[in-house]
Specification:
The complex is a heterodimer of chains A (about 120) and B (about 110).
Chain A (H helix, E strand, L loop, with lengths): L4 E3 L2 E4 L5 E6 L6 E8 L3 E9 L2 E4 L8 E7 L2 E6 L8 E8 L15 E2 L3 E5 L1
Parallel strand pairs in A: 2-11
Antiparallel strand pairs in A: 1-3, 3-8, 4-5, 4-9, 5-6, 7-8, 9-10, 9-11
Chain B lengths: L8 E5 L4 E6 L7 E8 L6 E6 L4 E2 L4 E4 L5 E6 L8 E9 L12 E6 L1
Classes of the chains: A mainly beta (about 120), B mainly beta (about 110).
Chain lengths: ~120, ~110
């Protein structure tokens, strides 16, 4: 398996532009997570999906952020309009149900992508 | 989920064992201890997890005290590639996969 695939790896845009980040989870994983990482705030969970349905979006900073998962193999995180304070590395992660992870009871093994580094000028 | 406390940073000599402590004094009976690490410019990577018994895998060992209020992650023979931020996370299993990461411990392995 190629792992969790994110694109683009790097994005530089100007304030006010729309940004779309993409994620392809590992096949068979039914959980998908979007995290944001900055020096000031560390790793923050933005939203997560189970079976393509958003379960918890309480970490989404504001209405400018939206996330979708139209099918089991694809998710997007969109920022419109973007602002300089949105500059961060955005990680996507996926996870199988505990009972299928193969790592024993209680395993919530998230596999992360390489991240998308966003710079908003 | 229970709060964890980790040292901000620690150094380790290459080839020696690295022992990373984590305090989780408010852990409840159904909460697991998880360890992840993040190498610079990469996404976090799962290392190991446990409930109350010590655990070992190809990457590390996890020692959990009998009262479960603290644990230690052991990297038996640290290499330069083990330089990373290590996160200790405590949470209830089957709570639908949500993990919250704290500040972690920056481990620097030196030659």
């Amino acid at each position: 398996d190629a792992g969790v695939i994110q694109s683009p790896r790097h994005e530089v845009t100007e304030m006010g532009q729309e940004v779309t980040l993409r994620c392809k989870p590992i096949s068979g994983h039914d959980y998908l997570f979007w995290y944001r990482q900055t020096m000031m705030r560390g790793l923050e969970l933005l939203i997560y999906f189970n079976n393509n349905v958003p379960i918890d979006d309480s970490g989404m900073p504001e209405d400018r952020f939206s996330a979708k998962m139209p099918n089991a193999s694809f998710s997007t995180l969109k920022i419109q309009p973007s602002e300089p304070r949105d500059s961060a590395v955005y990680f996507c992660a996926s996870s199988p149900p505990d009972r299928t992870s193969g790592k024993g009871p209680g395993a919530n093994v998230l596999t992360f992508g390489a991240g998308s580094r966003l710079t908003v000028l | 989920d229970a709060k964890t406390t980790q040292p901000t940073s620690m150094d380790c000599a290459e080839g020696r064992a690295a022992n990373l402590p984590c305090n989780h004094s408010t852990i409840s009976g159904n909460e697991y201890v998880y360890w992840y690490r993040q190498i610079h410019s990469q996404g976090p990577q799962y290392i190991i997890h446990g409930l109350k018994n010590n655990e070992t895998n190809e990457m590390a060992s996890l020692i959990i005290t009998e009262d479960r209020k603290s644990s230690t992650l052991i990297l038996p023979h640290a290499t330069l590639r083990d330089t990373a931020v290590y996160y200790c996370i405590v949470r209830v299993a089957d709570s639908w996969g949500k993990l919250q990461f704290g500040a972690g411990t920056q481990v620097v392995v030196t030659p």
